[in-house]
Amino acid sequence: MRHETVVVIGGLSGLGRAVAERAAAEGARVIALGRRAAPADLSKQIETATLDITDEAAVERFFSKLGALDHLVVTSGPVIDSFKLGDLDINAAKDAFDVKVFGQLRAAKQAARYIAKTGSITLTSGLLARKAMPGTLVKATMNAAIESMGKILAKELAPVRVNVVSPGMVETGMWGEMPEAERKAMAAKVGSGLPVGRVGQTGDLAQAYWLVMTNGFMTGAVVDVNGGGLL
User: Quick check: 201 and 207 in contact, CB under 8 A?
Assistant: First the structure.
């Protein structure tokens, strides 16, 4: 991985930031992208740029300008509330799909033109892809679509490896805006119901992304990192 180029879309916060920092610590050249400005405390080893993953022309320009790369990781996803069918806002659902499903598809499409044959693409789904819960229709179908996408692309883009990491409940900004005390209370409540007794941390997930990036015999895999949440 040393001296290889890793692009992390969603890499300025949360899971993506943890992945970017892990790759940089291992000696990779890392470019982290997101819709907002880079945080002031981000490692200076990491290059940054702004990118709207819903803008295909912008995604195409970025990869065209960058040129050769070795690994792409996409962790971008919307913060969306849970609604049962009768209360569902279809337009909001379309917007969410445009970020998480079509956004990851745009990134994979454009990166595939430049990625090394020994490289990898890692997408991000979520536990709800395979855990049926009322009110999670949009989240579940988005994540299930990404898991199918990863398997198909693993065949279409071979020998480039394509995998999907499926997080469970992780203590990040993806929970939306809430006071820190409320966040900790929610984490404790959810974690108490998991076999491991806690929710995930970004470092837990960074290890999984690192695994699929560096293991040359993994492709078409969906890697669950959820503390036993599917049991």
Answer: no
The model's pTM is 0.93
The residues with which 7 forms a beta bridge, in sequence order, are: 31, 72
Cα distance between residue 201 and residue 76, in whole Å: 17
Can you read off the two tokens belonging to residue 144? 């299930």
Give the CATH number, domain containing residue 137: 3.40.50.720
Angle CA 143–149–152, to nearest 5: 150
Torsion angles phi and psi, residue 33, rounded to 5: -125, 150
- Tokens standing for residue 125: 């789904």
- Cβ neighbours of residue 174 closer than 8 Å, sequence gap 6 or more: 14, 15, 77, 79
Range of the domain at 24: 5-224
Of residues 103 and 171, more confidently modeled? 103
Judge whether 231 lies within some domain. no
- Do 53 and 65 contact (CB within 8 A), yes or no? no
Mark out the alpha helices in 26-89 (DSSP H runs). Answer: 56-66
